[in-house]
Design a protein that fits this description.
Largest sheet: 6 strands, parallel
Mean pLDDT: 92
Distance between the termini: 19 Å
CATH topology of the largest domain: Rossmann fold
Low-confidence stretches: 369-376
Number of strands: 12
Number of helices: 13
Helix content: 25-40%
CATH architecture of the largest domain: 3-Layer(aba) Sandwich
Order of helices and strands: EHEHHEEHHEHEEHEHEHEHEEHHH
CATH class of the largest domain: Alpha Beta
């Protein structure tokens, strides 16, 4: 394996799914050089912090953790990291601009792609919903798309986190990719001998495209208990629209999240997600998942009507459709066996991710694929 590895991530402000993917690479290559646009010290794991991430000029802006998402128009300009000439392989973890890192001449650049820039390509309406804001950002987003497509040429090999993202990479960049699913800590997220209770659960950053307004609305209309774990831009609006049966816990440690997975009736997942680690963590704890039937969730949940179902899907991203799905779930609740959910989650474990990703990097180098046609 190479000893001179450069790792690039968009920004480091917390330990979410993308950072857990990066963490494994940092532990595997402890002498790697790590680059990011922004780094909030202490916000990520020791394995990542130990590499002392090198940042961009945006990191010098005072108070940037409060407003860094609004720096999006400046991020392409800032994504100019000095990758050392001695680098043997560049591995970027990208949902925004990390894939624009420029490798030294002749050095393979493998991009582990969480998604092409979703706010510029597939989910513009979810982030900028109508009015003056949507009109004002239209020109900026057009330029971002052009830049994003153009800088895809700096990547020699794309790896997608799901078949959903493989299709997006093909649509946006005209490139094929390999698929390696992200890691899920199935050793930590495990079932427990506790009874299921009569409440529903959502766990995530409360971003607009996650559509947790549908979960809040549906549970209010049905009078069902809902527990919300997470913080984000939509937190205030969701609290304002919630009924008395909804409880907001803010962000919680993994032990609390695991406990909620073990006890809830089901997890609600109304987002069209790139992969969606929460449904897999929930299933690892034996919980069924009620999910919107598009995106990565369709690759990780066995729907009602399939052998050994682990959840069910609703076809439209509306509160009415989610209300109907919850009612269907309650009619067929006995069909969901926690052992089936656990079994379905186990193949997404961390060891599988590391074996597939590090094996892919090794094959790229050993076969000298930098001169071969680009793609997976």
């Amino acid at each position: 394996m190479p000893t001179r590895v450069a790792l690039v991530h968009d920004w480091l402000t917390g330990m979410r799914g993308g950072e857990k993917c990066l963490e494994a690479a940092c532990a595997h290559w402890p002498d790697a050089k790590l680059f990011a646009l922004l780094h909030q010290p202490g916000s990520v794991s020791e394995a990542i912090e130990r590499l002392k991430p090198r940042t961009s000029l945006l990191n010098e802006l005072p108070g940037w953790p409060r407003y860094y998402r609004y720096l999006l128009p400046l991020m392409p300009w800032a994504a100019r990291w000095p990758i050392p000439a001695s680098t043997e392989v560049l591995l970027s973890f990208s949902h925004c601009v990390a894939k624009a890192a420029r490798p030294p001449r002749g050095v393979p650049h493998i991009c582990y792609c969480f998604s092409p820039m979703r706010y510029a390509w597939h989910m513009e309406a979810s982030y900028f919903r109508g009015g003056w804001k949507a009109r004002a950002v239209g020109i900026v987003l057009k330029r971002l798309r052009d830049w994003d497509r153009r800088t895809a040429s700096r990547v020699t090999h794309f790896v997608a986190i799901s078949e959903t993202i493989r299709q997006r990479i093909r649509e946006c960049y005209g490139r094929d990719s390999a698929v390696i699913y992200p890691p899920v800590d199935t050793d930590f997220y495990t079932p427990a001998d506790v009874p299921r209770e009569d409440f529903y659960l959502v766990v995530s950053a409360l971003a607009p495209y996650k559509r947790f307004d549908l979960a809040v609305d549906a549970c209010r209309r049905l009078g069902k208990r809902l527990v919300v774990i997470g913080t984000g831009q939509d937190a205030v609006k969701l609290r304002a629209s919630a009924g008395p049966t909804t409880t907001f816990l803010g962000w919680q440690p993994d032990t609390v999240i695991r406990d909620q997975f073990r006890r809830c009736a089901a997890v609600l997942f109304p987002a069209e997600e790139d992969f969606g680690i929460v449904p897999v963590e929930a299933q690892a704890c034996g919980a069924p998942v009620i999910a919107y039937g598009k995106g990565g969730a369709t690759e990780t949940i066995c729907g009602l009507g399939e052998p050994n179902p682990t959840g069910l899907f609703f076809a439209e991203q509306t509160a009415d459709a989610l209300v109907d799905a919850i009612e269907r779930f309650e009619k067929h609740r006995a069909a969901f066996d926690p052992a089936d959910a656990r079994k379905n989650a186990e193949p997404f474990n961390k060891d599988r991710y590391e074996r597939e990703l590090f094996g892919y990097v090794e094959r790229v180098l050993n076969r000298n694929l930098t001169s071969a046609p680009r793609g997976g």
